[in-house]
UniProtKB/TrEMBL annotation:
Localisation: Cell membrane; Bacterial flagellum basal body
Originating species: Shewanella benthica KT99
Xref: PANTHER family: FLAGELLAR BIOSYNTHETIC PROTEIN FLIQ
Function: Role in flagellar biosynthesis.
InterPro entries (UniProt xref): Bac_export_3, FliQ
Pfam family, one: Bac_export_3
Gene name of the record: fliQ
GO cellular component terms listed in the entry, alphabetical order: bacterial-type flagellum basal body; plasma membrane
Membrane topology: Multi-pass membrane protein
UniProt keywords, alphabetically: Bacterial flagellum, Cell membrane, Cell projection, Cilium, Flagellum, Membrane, Transmembrane, Transmembrane helix
Protein name (database record): Flagellar biosynthetic protein FliQ
Amino acid sequence: MNPESLVDIFREALSVIVTIVSLIIVPGLVIGLVVAVFQAATSINEQTLSFLPRLLTTLFALMFLGHTLIQTMMEFFVQMVNMIPQVIG
C-alpha cells in the first residue's frame, strides 16, 4: 500500500463529509441570515425568533435530503469495503 492511496481515501472521505454537512447546514444559514436582516430592519432583538426558523429549516433539509445523504454514505462505505483487498495487499 502506498501513501497516495491513503491520501486519496482521506480526500474522498473529506469530500463526502463536506457534502453531507453542507447540505444540512447551508439552508439553516440562509434562513438565519434572512431572519437576522429582518430583525435588523425592524429593530426586534429577540434571540428566540431566529432559533425556530433555523431549526425547522434544518429538520426539513434532513427530511427531504435524508435519502440522498444516506445513499451518499452507503456508496462511500461500499467503495471503502471494495478497496480493502487493494489496501491490504
